[in-house]
Amino acid sequence: MIKVTIDGRQLEAQPDELLVDLIERSGVSVPHVCYHPQLGPVQTCDTCMIEVNGRLVRSCATAVADGIQVMTKSAKASAAQVEAFDRILSNHLLYCTVCDNNNGNCVVHNTTKLLAIEHQTIPFRPKPYEVDTTNPFYRYDPSQCILCGRCVEACQNVEVNETLSINWEDPNPRVLWDGGSTIGESSCVSCGHCVTVCPCNALMEKSMLGHAGFLTAIRKSALEGMIDVVKGVEPETGYGAILQVSEAEHAMREHRIRRTKTVCTYCGVGCSFDVWTKDRYILKIAPEHGPTNGISTCVKGKFGWGHINSEDRLTSPLIREGDKFRKATWDEALTLVAQKLSELKASNGPDSLAFIASSKCTNEEAYLMQKLARAVIGTHNVDNCSRYCQAPATTGLFRTVGYGGDSGSFTDIEQADLVIIIGSNTAESHPVLATRVKSSHKLNGQKLIVSDIREHEMARRADLFIHPKPGTDIVWLCAVSRYLLDHELANSKFLDQWVNGLEAYRKSLEPFTMEAASRITGLPEETMRAVAQMIVDAKKVCILWAMGITQHSHGSDASTAISNLLLVTGNYMRPGTGAYPLRGHNNVQGAGDHGAAPNTLTGYQSVDDPEVQKRFEAAWKVKLPSTKGLDNHQMVDAIYQGKLKAMYLIGEEMSIVDSNANYVGDAFAKLDFFVVQDIFFSETCRFADVVLPGAPSLEKEGTFTSTERRIQRLYQVLEPLEGCRPDWKIIQDVANHLGANWDYQHPSEVMDEIASLTPLMAGVSYARLEGYKCLQWPVAPDGSDQPLLYTKDFPFPDGKARLFPLSWMGVTDAPNAEFDLHLNNGRLLEHFHEGNLTYRSEGIREKVPDVFVEVSPELAEERSIQSGTWVQLISRYGQVRVRALVTDRVKGRELYMPMNSVESPVNRLTSSHADAVTNTPAYKEASVRMTVLPDVGASPLPRVNSRFGHPTPQQGVEVERKWKRPDYHPPGNGLVQLQTKSL
Ligand code: SF4
Ligand code: SF4
Ligand code: SF4
Ligand code: FES
Fold it and tell me: Nearest-CA neighbor of 48 among 69, 33, 28, 65?
């Protein structure tokens, strides 16, 4: 520790701690406008001047040093602070009482008060630019912009979308999008980082405007009149009196604006944030304290909440009558569900019923769903959509290292020397995680290898982008492992100490010579050698993968190959290393963790383990079957075989997100009884006999588990819409109508039960998850968790990991003369999955109104296709009509179709081939032929989509350019010792 004296008081500081942080920590207030702890020193505002050993310095950019004397309120420091802030006020009109940002956290307001500013000496000067309202979610008011550059820093170096800059050399600097575009036509991805960190009202969510304040909804002309009044009295009253009025208005807001913590409902990154609401109206999403995301969000988490108050929410149970549905009371619907399920169980046995839990619902709801199946009905026929994506990754990890979860946290990925991304469009599917990789790559010299068949953003940023033939990643992974072993480049010390099975594994690698791998993958041998060398050169390697690996007929083996490679190179058991299968849905990790699977109870305890079975039987007071149930792929086949008669499915659009959608839909039509629980009348509801209206994440309590194994609480932001019920209550209602007699009053009681039955979650409780607290499993009874999964050993009897022998089986559904094009598919940044939630946000629809198929420029030229040409894609299983988007993101005869369509879902084209081990559909192994239709429409992506923008990468806000302006001089009569960001 270092000793520092602040205003005469001696304090201890951490080496490298910034003075501004130490001063704050000591309880002393020093102004700082541009500094934000999650952005670091931006150094544009100069308001944080303090005296250190007699010299003025910026406290945000100066690290502590032993024995220094700091004065925060000396005459010199105070004068410099006031002078700096006076310049800021010349860029900002203080009209707080009628400002939607008057919420107690406006930095300009608070600094005016802190410095007791009564009058400004430099008059306010509006900037000669219009307000930009061209983005659907936020607007920029240049005349209120204090040029602090926080937004630029956030966009350039945290989000790393590199859209924003400030034209410091201009007579009237302002924030620029793509160097001078409108926001709407820029590369802005609407992630909201800039809006979140803006210290005043220059950047604001449109949802706040006219809604947050008591006086802010008034007409613009009246508003301007009121601003004139405020400015008119200022010379006489000073700002002190004016601020008092605005603070009274702010105090009134406190009574009607609620701020409630929640966890994002979309992807598995697990961003958490406060939701600001006024009655049912969502004012804004405010990220700040999330352990995973801090200030970060993507467009969906920040702005994609239109589904909550959508007019087409289901608000009443529905019962089928012929081809139509009629509204029913809850009691009628629940009675019918219980009666039909009981009848079918009695006549066909419990295994004629099946249950699908939702990976969008909470852990507690997943647990209750599998308890309903097992304890009330008596079947292990329960699954969730991790079958469609993550089951192979879990298998690969179980085989090799023992736990089916990410080896570490995003902080480990951030600190890796080398990140390898395979089959993951991370920037669009896991956007906030991608920001951490982009930032480490841009700022800290992290190396990046991307393997994909599509040149997405991460591929474009990569140091090495490889494009193997579709489905052949497993081959190059095995070949690289073999090469490392053959050339004594493997980590033999780690292998000796921590890994079993080397010989059998080496033998299985015999066919994977570089020459054979090159022939199968199409990658040059030197490229694979370069990959191997980059791995050897890096001390810490993380491998990230997703559906491009798992959704193949050998998805489990390819996931295993990744883990094998990490073991061969010793990239486990240390910070900055490990395996990271990126979980897709917000709670797909949690649904599996909490037993919504046909072979495992909570915490991956086997259903056929007698000790486990006994424990659950004792707790649930029932007899449980000991043979595993059907997974959701097998359930569909069992319907065709006449073995499965009834299903109860929650929150899954299974009829279009399962592969070979026509086959699945036809199966549902054959069911004797089908219950679907959702918040909208989904496509799957069309096959239902009873539809039950559930509640979205903002209307219930519970926990989600993110891809980092991070368990986080979500709090109820809004009452359930009238007529709807939280899903955990509905499951309990169904169970009780079946005679179960459950009495859970709150999801915390469900979690207590889970913890009592599950060694992996033994120490989990709502008290330990309060607010923004979180736990990363495994959680010991004393509440200690494991952000880094493997520290002491691997969870096998001898504590050693296992190399798993592999072979290459080829791909299914490969292109041939009839179906000559390979069809890839996946997510888009703006829409989640099929878009049932995100299409209900108007701004997202504006950015991406429809689905499309990406066609390479080569193929477009060959077939006379342009963006907007309608084409018919025909596979062995179905066909869809869709518009083409010509782009060099895809190459040659490889197509890409995002999933964001209910009308033309890509899964009408995919097959029923599946991973041999987990039955995960081989979505990524599809081939089609394409008929070019005569109609040509507009481009399916409008000009306002960010993909048409032109980013302007630079090193943050580049404050040095401001300092070079002829009219700039540091405040405090030039006594400032200028600091740079490299401390
Ligand atoms: S991408 Fe757009 S919303 Fe995100 S930080 Fe940059 S300018 Fe702001
Ligand atoms: S728009 Fe950017 S530069 Fe302007 S005040 Fe807001 S964060 Fe600062
Ligand atoms: S969708 Fe994912 S990355 Fe985006 S805000 Fe939600 S959790 Fe974060
Ligand atoms: S806080 Fe702005 S320069 Fe230090």
Answer: 33
202 C-alpha to center of ligand 1: Å?
A: 14
Can you give the pLDDT at residue 387? Answer: 80
Pick the closest to residue 70 from 35, 12, 15, 23 (CA basis): 23
The position carrying tokens 């508003």 is 223
Query: The tokens 């707080």 sit on which residue?
Result: 96
Structure tokens at 881: 């009509």
User: Is 189 near ligand 3, meaning CB less than 6 Å away?
Assistant: no
* Amino acid making up residue 190: S
Contacts of 614 (CB under 8 A, 6+ apart): none
Give the per-residue pLDDT at 973: 65
Residues in contact with ligand 1 by the CB-under-6-Å rule are 154-155, 159, 161, 163-164, 188-194
Cβ atoms 498, 800 nearer than 8 A:
yes
The first and second tokens of residue 913, run together, are: 């081939």
Q: Are 957 and 950 in contact (CB under 8 A)?
A: no
Extract the tokens encoding 936.
Answer: 């040509």
Q: Largest alpha-carbon pair distance within the chain?
A: 91
What value, to the nearest 5°, has the Cα angle with vertex 589 and ends 586 and 591? Answer: 90
Question: Does residue 778 have a cis peptide bond before it, meaning omega lies within 30 degrees of 0?
Answer: yes
Ligand 4 atom nearest the C-alpha of 46 is 3
Contact 259, 112 (CB under 8 A): no
Instruction: State the pLDDT at residue 295.
Output: 98
Q: Report the alpha-carbon distance of residue 552 to residue 310 in Å, rounded.
A: 36
pLDDT value, residue 57: 94
Q: What is the pTM of this model?
A: 0.96
| DSSP 3-state of 43 | coil
Q: What's the number of CA atoms in the CB half-sphere (13 Å) around residue 324?
A: 3
Measured from the alpha carbon of residue 166, the closest ligand is 2
Ligand nearest to the CA of 145: 2
CA distance 549 to 451: 10
Q: For position 978, what pLDDT does the model report?
A: 40
Residue 114 Cα to ligand 4 midpoint, Å, equals 15
Side chain identity at 428, as an amino acid letter? E
The H or E element containing residue 5 is strand 2-6
Closest C-alpha to 8, from 65, 69, 64, 75: 69
> For ligand 3, is residue 405 a contact (CB within 6 Å)?
no
Q: For residues 507 and 431, what is the distance between their CA atoms, to the nearest angstrom? A: 39
Nearest CA to ligand 3 atom 5: 301
Specify the 3-state DSSP secondary structure of 606: strand
Which own/partner contact pairs does 605-608 have at CB distance under 8 Å and 24+ positions apart?
605/758, 605/759, 607/380
CA distances to 271, 361, 601 from 371, rounded to whole Å, are 28, 15, 9
Alpha helices in 763-920 (DSSP H): 842-847, 857-863
266 lines ligand 3 (CB under 6 A): yes
Which pLDDT belongs to residue 227?
82
The H or E element that residue 517 is part of is helix 514-521
Atom of ligand 3 nearest to the CA of 267: 2
Could you write out the DSSP letters of every residue in 429-476?
Answer: HSHHHHHHHHHHHHHS--EEEEE-SS--HHHHH-SEEE-PSTT-HHHH
Q: How many Cβ atoms from other residues are within 10 Å of residue 441's Cβ?
A: 18
Type of residue found at 523: L
Beta strands across the sheet bearing 690-693: 324-327, 318-321, 690-693, 673-678, 646-650, 353-356, 382-383
CA atoms 694, 695, 697, 702: torsion sign:
negative
Classified as helix, coil or strand, 694 is coil
Nearest CA to ligand 4 atom 3: 43
Q: Which two tokens stand for residue 312?
A: 């087409």
Low-confidence stretches of the chain (pLDDT beneath 70): 973-983
Ligand 1 center to 163 CA (angstroms): 7
Task: Give backbone dihedrals phi and psi of 275, rounded to 5 degrees, phi first.
Answer: -105, 125
Rounded-to-integer distance, Cα 955 and Cα 153, Å: 8
CA–CA distance, 555 with 920 (Å, rounded to integer)? 8
